[in-house]
Every structure is written in structure tokens, then in C-alpha cells.
Write a structure and sequence with these properties.
Length: about 140
């Protein structure tokens, strides 16, 4: 699918709003050698618009793991569960930081942490700069 045009102003708004952090795993952009990208929360494939309320700032790991997915399965109940949405959810309602480890607090948090692979060993080694006061 063609990559949509995102204006300089919209790009700046998304980056400033995120305070240059990945809005999913809270890694600081400058701590991720591959940096962060602007992503569609609801992917283009599923009709998500290129508007400020559907855009988030995400590190390359989170963005690649999320792909065009919108959620996953809660294997205990068989239910389809959506991912954490940085525009409508508060991070601290769904996750908490246990030093560098992100612990899910809700089923939305569990599905998001699992599919985006927040606590992958290779990622943890560079996660220490996470701002524990966030949000
Ligand atoms: Zn991330």
C-alpha cells in the first residue's frame, strides 16, 4: 500500500505530542539506533485515516511487530482484544514499569505487550532510559 503523505506540521505535532518517546514501549527516540517512526494506530489497510487522532510515534521494533494488526487473541477466553491505543488510552492504566520490564495491568496491556514484544531480551538491554514518571 502506498505510503500516505504526512505534512511537516502533522509530523511535528505527532513527535512533539509524544515527547520524542515511542508511545508504546516508552523508549526515547535517541536511545533506539533505528529511531522512531510515525505510525497509523488503525492501519491504512483497515481504513485508518492519516489524521492526528490516528497517528502515533513508535519505535521501529514496536511498529514492525504491530504491522497492520489491530489486536490479538486472549487465549484464556478466545476473545479478540484490541491493542492499546495511545490516543484514547492512558499508558499507566494498562502497563506499569518494573525497572526495564513493562508489566501489563489489563488484557489490552497483555495482548499489546505480547504482540509488540516489549520485553524481548535484546530490547531490554537498551531500555534503561525509560522515563519512569511517564505519563
Ligand atoms: Zn516501542
Amino acid at each position: 500500500m502506498a505510503h500516505p503523505y504526512i505534512s511537516v506540521e502533522l509530523r511535528r505535532l505527532v513527535i512533539n505530542r509524544a515527547d520524542s518517546l515511542c508511545e508504546y514501549c516508552l523508549i526515547l527516540e535517541t536511545d533506539r539506533p533505528s529511531g522512531c517512526q510515525i505510525e497509523h494506530i488503525i492501519s491504512l489497510k483497515h481504513g485508518g485515516p492519516t489524521t492526528e487522532d490516528n497517528l502515533a510515534y513508535a519505535c521501529v521494533f514496536c511498529n514492525l511487530q504491530k504491522g497492520t494488526d489491530l489486536g490479538s487473541i486472549n487465549w484464556q477466553t478466545g476473545e479478540l482484544v484490541r491493542f492499546f491505543n495511545p490516543r484514547r488510552d492512558l499508558w499507566a492504566d494498562h502497563f506499569r514499569l518494573d525497572e526495564a520490564i513493562i508489566q501489563p495491568l489489563t488484557i489490552i496491556g497483555e495482548v499489546t505487550a505480547r504482540i509488540l514484544d516489549f520485553n524481548d531480551r535484546d530490547r531490554l538491554s537498551i531500555n534503561f532510559s525509560r522515563r519512569s514518571w511517564f505519563p
